[in-house]
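[Automated response] Your request has been received and processed.

Submitted sequence:
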Amino acid sequence: MEKKMKIFKKEERDEVVLPLITNYLNQFEEGTGSFNYDEKKQTITMSGKQNGYFITLTAEKGIGETTTQTKYPIFSRKSDYKDEVLRLYNELNLTQREIAARLNISQSLVSKLIREV
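Generated structure:
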């Protein structure tokens, strides 16, 4: 039996979603946190920098039932991303757009790094 996703009413959303977003954004370095709330899918995606890492957190299916987090080092040079881009592309079969979002770099840089092989 498939579990149905809870759809929040506006009041519930304000009580559940906004505190979750605020809690995580406060943990990121000032000015680096961002979020996207997809009301239709009931998904929150937050990202920011923390202690030399770029972190992405996704809460899905009723906010909090499924949570995934990725953590990648922030490199000083764009060329330093090459090994991680190739690993994500070849081992995890992620798209260029997905890799760019995870590493907080442009899709065009991902494409360039893959072509250099």
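Summary generated for your ticket: The longest helix spans residues 10-25. The chain has two domains: 1-74, 75-117.
If you did not submit this request, please reply to this message.
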